[in-house]
Design goal:
Layout (H helix, E strand, L loop, with lengths): L1 H13 L2 H10 L1 H4 L6 H8 L2 H8 L4 H12 L6 H8 L3 H13 L4
Length: about 100
């Protein structure tokens, strides 16, 4: 898990303040917590209760893409996920955008 948290913290560091704020609009449970660093934020964003709560806000396409990414041990590619789900790259990109808005992928 520490590697995932570090990767998420690095990604968050690349975002602007408005982009981080937009993520926290979807992840209000995390926004309400005391957070001092981006690593703290990444830790809270990967909390299983928080992840499960935000999954309820996803549409089916995003849930399917998330499931395929997890099933492929985060090692899949756009092509392998699309092949598994029989979806277009456009469908994948739309779903991935939804996942990124919530800091899930």
């Amino acid at each position: 898990m520490p590697r995932r948290i570090n990767a998420l913290a690095t990604w968050l560091l690349q975002l602007g303040p408005d982009e981080v704020a937009a993520i926290l609009l979807y992840r209000r449970d995390v926004a309400d917590r005391f957070i001092r660093t981006l690593k703290d934020l990444a830790t809270q964003l990967t909390d299983s209760d928080s992840v499960h709560a935000v999954e309820d806000t996803l549409d089916q396409g995003a849930l399917d893409v998330l499931g395929a990414i997890v099933a492929q041990n985060n090692a899949g590619t756009v092509d392998t996920v699309c092949a598994e789900l029989h979806c277009t790259i456009g469908d994948f990109e739309r779903a991935l955008g939804e996942l990124k808005e919530r800091a899930l992928a």
